[in-house]
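Hey team,

Filing this mostly as a record. A colleague (T.K.) asked me to run one chain through the structure pipeline before their review meeting, and I want the input and output archived in the tracker in case anyone asks later how it was produced. No errors, nothing strange. Just documentation.

Input sequence:
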Amino acid sequence: MEKAVSKVRTAKIELYRKQGKIHAKAVDGRFNRLRWAAVWLTQIIFYGACWLQWTPADTPRQAILFDIAHEKLYLFGLVLWPQDALLLAIALLLAALGLFFVTALAGRLFCGFACPQTVYTSIFVWIEARIEGDHLARLKLDQSPLSARKLGLKTLKHGVWLLIAAWTGITFVGYFTPIRELLPSLAAWQTGPWEAFWLIFYTAFTYVQAGLAREAVCQHMCPYSRFQGVMFDPATRQVGYDHQRGEPRAARRQDKAAGDCIDCAICVEVCPTGIDIRNGLQYQCINCGLCIDACDQVMQRLKLPTGLIRFASENELNLRSPLEPAVVPVVQEIAQKRPRIIIYASLIAAFTLLGAWTLSQRTLLVVDVWRDRGALLREMPDGRIENAYTLKLTNQADTPRRIEISADGLPGLEIIGARQFDIPAGSIQPIQLTLAAPSSANLSGLQPIALEISSIQDGLRLRQPSRFALP
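Output structure:
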C-alpha cells in the first residue's frame, strides 16, 4: 500500500512543457518557399484590399467595407444587408467544410501555410533574425546578461514588432471604418471609442500572439490542434518520418547496417514548434514541411534518396518497402473507401450550388407594404373611398433608382398624388401612398388588390399583394 501511495506521489502529469523560447534554425527548400509565397499572398490581400476603391454612379467608396453602423457589407459591386444573412451563413459553412476537407486530405495544411498565427510569426521571426542574427546568435543573446548591446537590440526588435502590429490593427479597423477616413482621424486623435478599442486590442493581440506567444499558441491555445485527430484516417497525407527506412538511427560512418537517419536532429532544430517528427504524429505539428526541407538537404549531401521525412499517409508508410518511391496519387487515395472525403466534397458542392442559387434569386429592390390601421377608410364627398398605405422601399443596389407605382384589383382603383419616386443607392425609403376607388354596391369589406413597383432603369417589376377596405 505504501509503495502504491509513493508511486502516486511521484507520478507527474506534464500539462505544459517548459523548454524556454524556441529559436528555430532557418532552412531553405520548396516548402519554405511555399510558406513565404503564402505569407506574401495573404498579406498583399489583407493590407491592400482595404485601399481598393469602387465607383458606382461616380460616387467612389471603399470596395470592401463592413459598414456596421448602416448594417451593410460592401463587396465591390455587391451590397449585402441583414436579410442576406443566409449568404453569410453559407459562406461560413463552406469555409468550415473546406477546412475539414483539406484536413482529411493533408492534415493541418492550413496551419502550416495560411493560418494568421503562422503567417505573422514567420514575419516577426524574420525581423528578429535580421536584427539579432541567426538562431544560435539569438539563443546566445537571450542567455547573456543584460548589456547596452542587448538592450538596444531588444528595444529595436520590439519597436519594429509594435510598428507592424500597429499597422495591422489599423488595417483591420480600416475594413470597418473607411481607411481613408481612419488615418486622418488617427492623426488628429479623433477616433471613436470603439475604433480606439479595436485598434489597441488588435495591435496588442498581434504583438503578443506573433511576437511573444508564438509556438505556445499552436501547442496549448489552439483548439483546432486538439480535435484534428478525429478528422484523420490512415489515408490522410501529412508530414511523417519513414521508420522502416530511417531506423535504427546511427552515424553511417560508424554503423553501415543502420538506417538512413544519422540522428543529426536537424529536423528538430528547424521545427517552429520544437517537436521531433521522428516520434510520430503529434498534435503540435502544423504540417509546415520545414523538417522535410532540412532532411532532404542532409540526404542529398549523403547521396541518399530524399523523402526520409515527407508528406505521406499512414498506409503508405506502413505498407511500402523501405526504398520504394514515395508517390501515391491523391486521386488514387480518394478512390479508396474514404466516406468522409466523399461527404465533405458533396456538402461543399451542395452548399456552393445553394449559395449560387440564393445569390441569383436575390432581388436588389425589396418592398414592404403596410395599410394604415389607424383609419380603415375615408369616405370622400364625391363618393370615392380612400385607403392610406406606407411603402418601405429598400434599394440594395449601389446606384440610385427611380421607381413607378401602379395599382390594380378593383374597378376604378387609382393612386392619388405622385406615382414616381427616387430611391437613393443603398437606402431604405418610406413612402406614403393613398389609393382611391369608387364605392360599390356589390363589394364591401376588405378586397384583395396588388401594387406593382417598377424600376425605370432596369425594368425590374415587383407585385406586392395588399387589401383595400370598402364600406
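Quick notes for T.K.: The first helix runs from residue 2 to 10. The longest strand covers residues 384-395.
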